[in-house]
Structures are given as structure tokens and as C-alpha cells.
Amino acid sequence: MSEAEEFTRGPLEGLIICPVCDATYQLQRPKNGERAVCVRCHKVLIAPKAKAGVQIIAVSIAVVVLIIAASLFPFLQISAAGRSNAVSILDAALTFTEGPMLVLALLTAGFIIFVPLLRMLLTIYVLVPLVLDRQPARHAIAAFRFSEALKPWSMAEIFALGCAVALVKVADLATVDFGPAFWMFGVLVVLVIVQDGYMCKWSVWNSLEHPKKS
After folding, report:
1. CA 72, CA 87: separation in Å to the nearest integer?
2. CB contact at 8 A, 90 and 187
3. 1 exposed, middle or buried (CB, 10 Å; 0-12, 13-18, 19+)?
4. Are 113 and 89 contacting, i.e. CB atoms less than 8 angstroms apart?
5. Structural contact between residues 93 and 160, judged by C-beta atoms closer than 8 angstroms
6. Would you call 109 exposed, middle or buried from its count of C-beta atoms within 10 A (0-12, 13-18, 19+)?
7. Of the candidates 66, 65, 53, the residue with the CA atom closest to the CA atom of residue 189
8. CA-closest candidate to residue 106, choices 95, 117, 121, 119
9. If you placed Cys at 93, which of 16, 75, 81, 108 could pair as Cys (CB 3.0 to 4.6 Å)?
10. DSSP string, the chain
11. What does the alpha-carbon distance between residue 92 and residue 114 come to, in Å, rounded to a whole number?
12. For the chain, what are the domain ranges?
């Protein structure tokens, strides 16, 4: 038997595959604060951190509060020619509610509000039992898989950055005042980046697939 065949015929639990370049390695679990990195594409495969679960839950709760508040408070106020108008994100997303534009309005609201909100709620649902050293919640594996599948469609931070760029051009035509929701989205962008930095997907999957026995 060749070395490659011997490598691939070992137990699957002892292997880890890079999600970017499909390179396969024998699993060696790093200590907290250390990282396992793919030597081919330099993708971080495992990066456990002490108390990362508690930090991710705290950040997720903060993001949930910010998303709900930002969708209700005014996002910006535009003044021109003696007239002014303040609008929230939900108002802007649901302005066009007739005909085919209704579909676009619902998709816009979904991508910038409901999908990010759902991802954070799923993250909290999955991680809370793990942090408390309990058995995973019912359907936790499916919930975490669905949360990861939604990640490319979570566009709250992209919306905030896009608005910041667009408002630079609008400022030449009218007076623009940023509402509370604008700053909430700014904080939200930072928190989403922080959460991604704390998240070690391998550690979550390992805890879900090999729960501690009570």
C-alpha cells in the first residue's frame, strides 16, 4: 500500500481538508491562541481561542440589538430647497410596494435586515448550550449549517459601506444629516468583523459532532 493510500484510508476523524484548495492534512489540534494554517493557500483551518464562545454570543446579541434599533430609527435626513425628509431603513426598503418592485423591496429588506438578524439568532441558538457545557440544541447542526449558508447573503455591512460612498455624492446636491441608525450600522460593521475574528468554525463543528457526555 502506498503512503497516499495509507493516508486516505485512515479514520476520517483524523483528517482535515482545506475548504479553499482541498489540501488534506492529518489533524493536529492547536492550543488556545495558536492556529493551524494550510501550507498551500494559507487559509486558517483551526484557530481556537479561550472563551471565544462567550465573546461571540455577546457580539451576536449586540448585533441583534443594533439591527432591530437601526431598522426603526431614522437613517438619514436630507434637506434641499427648504424641504427636509427623514427616513429609516425599513421605510427606504419598502418605498416601492407595487408590482414587480415589491419583490425588489422585500429582497432589499431581507438582505440588509432579516438575513443578518437570522444569522445572529442562529449563532446564539447554537453556541449557548455549547458554552454552558450542555448537549447541543435540537437541530443545532442544521441551524449552524444554514447560518453559514446565509453568510454570503448577509449584506448589512455592505449596505452601510455603499450608503457611505453614495452619500458623498449626494452631499453636493443637498444637506445630509446622519441619523442614529447610520452610526448603529457603522458599529455593526465593526462587530461583524470582530465576530468573524473570534469564530473558529472547526471548533464549533467538533463540539456539535462530538458533544460532551453529561
Report:
1. 9
2. no
3. exposed
4. yes
5. no
6. middle
7. 66
8. 95
9. 108
10. --HHHHHHTS-GGGEEE-TTT--EEE--PPPTT--EE-TTT--EEE---TTHHHHHHHHHHHHHHHHHHHHHSEEEEEEETTEEEEEEHHHHHTS--STTHHHHHHHHHIIIIIHHHHHHHHHHHHHHHHHTT-PPPTTHHHHHHHHHHHGGG--HHHHHHHHHHHHHHHTTTSEEEE-HHHHHHHHHHHHHHHHHHH--HHHHHHHHHSPPP-
11. 15
12. 3-46, 53-209
CATH no. for 53-209: 1.20.140
Cell of 189: 460593521
Cell numbers that stand for 198 in this block? 473570534
pTM strictly above 0.85: no
Residue at grid coordinates 442544521: 142
Which residue numbers in the chain have pLDDT < 70? 1-13, 79-82, 84-87, 92-99, 157, 160, 163-164, 166-167, 169-174, 212-214
Strands 175-178 and 74-80: antiparallel
